[in-house]
Design brief:
Blueprint: E1 6-8, E2 11-12, E3 23-24, E4 28-30, E5 42-52, E6 57-59, H1 62-79, E7 85-86, E8 96-101, E9 110-114, E10 118-123, H2 126-139, E11 154-163, E12 169-175, H3 183-195, E13 200-204, E14 206-207, E15 210-211, H4 220-223, E16 227-228, E17 250-251, H5 256-267, E18 272-279, H6 284-289, H7 319-335, E19 340-344, H8 351-355, H9 357-365, H10 371-388, E20 392-396, E21 409-412, H11 417-424, E22 429-431, H12 434-437, H13 459-464, H14 474-477, E23 480-487, H15 495-502, H16 505-514, H17 522-539, E24 551-557, E25 562-568, E26 576-580, E27 590-591, E28 596-598, E29 602-610, E30 613-623, E31 632-635, E32 667-670, E33 674-696, E34 706-712, E35 719-725, E36 734-756, E37 768-776
């Protein structure tokens, strides 16, 4: 908010919350901070308060009581109040919560009116009553979300809310295959989805690296497919191939009873659990269990990490493949009553299909002329089976290739293009573009964040997401069911890290999918999310404060030998203050307004301030002006054209690279060694060379295995003054390191540095050498 007071121009909708029947009412002010997420679509403030007391009772019928029971149980546990539910028609009580059926409201919508004696809730369905009560929780102090009983008074402000969701699909996907999460964590996640008024939990139960659902007819799917060789010490993309029969100890699975409990728990909170059973690709775990499912029946092991290209896929030519899949899906549908069954359908490399006699015969029989049409046949056949069981097929946008199944719904992840195309064809769409809602992407500066799956989707970018593309026609937009975030788990080994990647980005997505666009406001949200953080603390959620982290963007003027440093974070009007040198960040720090110009080696510290005090993580960086800055660099081995850094002066421009190797500061050599010379012009007295390097073994970036430093006073007669060797060491993280070579002080005009490339990774792939700066002292 822009001030302590909260001022709202309120638009009360008619009961259906249609935009066409909204009308403006008077400006109302209140001193009470109302921080509801997602933002209600109409809100009017009154004067006074309603108090929850021992006398408060609830008037509801049996179905209404059942709908609000999950929230009611929390209220009773945390307030210690009885909050008895009465179904009789006796006279109104002094303090009551009244639930009323109103069939004119839309699905999941509700009205909430609070006066000094009554909380009055109207809704059309169970979801509406539940969401009204979730709003009631957010009107109470954040301590209501504590895990322990609190002996205090509980008051709610007098107000009126009319609310309903913008979209019917408001989802989160948890990948249980790449790293397995137990039932208890899934149940916690369901509670948190309900808090945010989200209504779909998509469980990714099958992938190459693990089969996570018990299928009783095929026990080897979990006996074999749920376990892989433990290579958790290595980067996901640097893990070594495994063979059939290798000792597999890492993994797990959910029993059918576990999953039925999860489904029932979710249903009580208006959350539909949508299972994903991948096909025809991302199924190495199934083929490891039953090799006959593949084209050539070659035994394989469950991969421990990245698989690319994905060639071990189901054979589309064998009838036994479809018998297996129909058997599996039959058991899946007995567990999950969801309208939708997700079948994946993405990233299938059809190399084997092109030469498999079974697949080629299938193409002849079905008169298919292109290999993509075989995948279309595969998907359409599965869809026909699901439709016969009164279910709907949903898949990633690759299911468009070769022709879309008649009643299929598309989940568009490669941007929004696939979703637009499906909507044009009259198909329903769930938008889930990697650009905005892949929660496995970084949400803050990579140097400050845990290892993630590349990309950059900060809180503010999630808030900018809109499932409806501006160029869509009204008819096409009507096919957009909503949106979904995906948390792929290659780099998410623990529940703590899973929470860190989900929250608070889920809060931003919840508002995107619930609140009408004209009611959204980033400045307003940035205030309300602070209260959401307090709720997260009470719930014990390991949420990220990455949006508050201060980041720096620097530019250099080599002619003037000056660096300008700009500071920012994601929120507007943040009070950022800084100090130069080895000073403490305190109330005397300098208020930041314009870029800071530096002309000498300087330690820079900066922090966000609230109420005159530093809060959060302190930004620290040292800008080093060294003897090589701005001098000529000659390359005996040229850098790779894909990673030129900032060009010929990149290694001597003072600007350092980050763990994001696409940041424009890294020069790269593929298999080649780096050999450069720096001409200092007049001689300089040197005693040390530092070589700044990056290692990230997933994308095959490795530290140099050796570095040599040669110097010449005349520019031609070089002598070696120092060297280091650094044998390969396996690492699962991205690491920045300055390799230091010290030597006796020497008068030098020209410096030659040779850094030796690993050449080949342990997997046999070509290795990169990445260097960002050569520091001469």
């Amino acid at each position: 908010m822009r001030s302590k007071k909260l001022y709202f121009i309120v638009f009360l909708a008619c009961l259906g919350l249609c935009q066409s029947c909204q009308k403006e009412i008077a400006l109302v002010a209140t001193e009470t901070p109302i921080h509801i997420i997602p933002q209600p679509n109409a809100l009017q403030y009154g004067e006074g308060y309603f108090s929850l007391t021992e006398d408060t009772q609830i008037r509801a019928n049996a179905s209404q009581k059942k709908a609000i029971e999950p929230v009611l149980a929390k209220l009773r546990r945390l307030t210690g109040l009885n909050l008895m539910v009465r179904t009789d028609e006796q006279q109104p009580m002094v303090s009551q919560i009244t639930l009323i059926q109103n069939d004119s409201l839309q699905n999941e919508g509700y009205t909430l009116q609070i006066n000094e004696h009554e909380i009055r809730i109207e809704a059309h369905d169970s979801a509406g009553y539940l969401y009204a009560m979730e709003t009631v929780l957010q009107l109470l102090p954040a301590t209501i979300f504590s895990t322990t009983h609190l002996d205090t008074s509980w008051t709610l402000p007098v107000l009126a809310i009319q609310d309903a969701p913008r979209f019917q699909w408001r989802g989160l996907m948890l990948d249980l295959s790449r790293h397995f999460f137990e039932k208890d964590y899934i149940l916690k996640t369901i509670d948190r989805l309900a808090l945010h008024k989200m209504n779909v939990l998509h469980l990714h139960l099958v992938d190459d690296q693990g089969w996570r659902i018990e299928i009783k007819k095929y026990p080897k799917l979990t006996e074999v497919g749920a376990w892989r060789v433990d290579q958790e010490d290595k980067h996901w993309s640097a893990r070594l191939p495994v063979k059939a029969g290798d000792r597999a100890t890492y993994g797990g699975f959910l029993t059918q009873e576990d999953l039925k409990e999860i489904v029932a728990y979710a249903a009580a909170r208006n959350i539909e659990v949508v299972p994903e059973i991948e096909m025809p690709a991302h199924v190495s775990s199934a083929i490891a269990a039953y090799p006959s499912l593949s084209c050539f029946e070659t035994p394989i092991g469950v991969p421990s990490g990245s698989v690319w290209p994905i060639t071990d896929i189901y054979c589309a030519g064998k009838e036994s493949t479809f018998t297996f899949l129909e058997d599996v899906l039959t058991e899946v549908m007995e567990i999950f009553p969801s309208k939708y069954i997700h079948i994946g359908g993405d990233e299938a490399t059809k190399t084997n299909w092109k030469i498999c006699p079974h697949c080629q015969q299938r193409m002849k029989t079905e008169q298919l002329h292109e290999i993509d049409q075989l995948q279309s046949y595969f998907i359409k056949r599965i869809e026909k089976f699901l439709v016969a069981h009164d279910r709907r097929l949903i898949g990633w946008d690759e299911i468009l290739e070769g022709g879309l199944a008649p009643e299929a719904t598309v989940m568009s992840w490669r941007g929004t293009k696939g979703g637009q195309e499906a909507a044009k064809q009259g198909h329903d769409v769930v938008m889930s573009p990697g650009s905005h809602v892949y929660f496995d992407h970084y949400q803050g500066p990579q140097n400050e964040e845990p290892l993630a799956n590349g990309g950059f989707s900060p809180l503010s970018k999630v808030y900018q997401f809109d499932p409806v593309v501006a160029s869509m026609t009204q008819e096409e937009a009507a096919h957009v069911l909503g949106g979904q975030a995906n948390l792929w788990a290659e780099f998410i080994p623990t529940t703590d890290q899973s929470e860190y990647m989900i929250y608070p980005r889920l809060a931003a997505l919840a508002e995107v999918l619930w609140t009408q666009p004209e009611r959204k406001d980033w400045v307003d949200f940035s205030t309300r999310v602070k209260t959401q953080f307090e709720r997260y603390k009470e719930l014990g959620i390991n949420y990220a404060e990455s949006a508050y982290l201060i980041t720096a963007s620097s530019t250099v003027d080599l002619q003037r030998k000056a660096v300008n440093v700009a500071l920012q974070n994601e929120f507007p009007d943040t009070d950022i203050r800084y100090v130069l040198g080895d000073q403490e960040i305190d109330e005397t720090a300098i208020s930041y307004h314009t870029p800071i110009e530096l002309k000498e080696t300087t330690l820079l510290k900066a922090s966000r301030f609230e109420d005159g005090k530093p809060v959060g993580r302190v930004f620290v960086d040292t800008i080093v002006f060294h003897k090589g800055v701005g001098h000529q660099v000659q390359y005996s081995t040229p850098y790779h054209k894909s990673y030129p850094g900032a060009g010929e002066t990149s290694l001597v421009n003072t600007l350092r690279g980050t763990k994001n190797f696409h940041d424009g500061q890294w020069q790269g050599w593929l298999e080649d060694d780096m050999e450069i010379t720096i001409d200092l012009g007049p001689t300089e007295l040197l005693r040390q060379v530092k070589v700044g390097a990056l290692e990230n073994q997933g994308p095959d970036i490795y530290f140099p295995t050796a570095i040599e430093v040669w110097v010449a006073k005349s520019g031609v007669d070089f002598k070696k003054v120092g060297a280091i060797e650094r044998p390969f060491v396996s690492s699962g993280d991205a690491v920045l390191k300055d390799f230091v070579i010290d030597f006796e002080p020497t008068e030098v005009r020209t410096v030659k540095i040779i850094a030796t490339n690993l050449k080949k990774s342990p997997k046999g792939t070509s290795s990169w050498l990445f260097i960002d700066e050569i520091i001469l002292k």
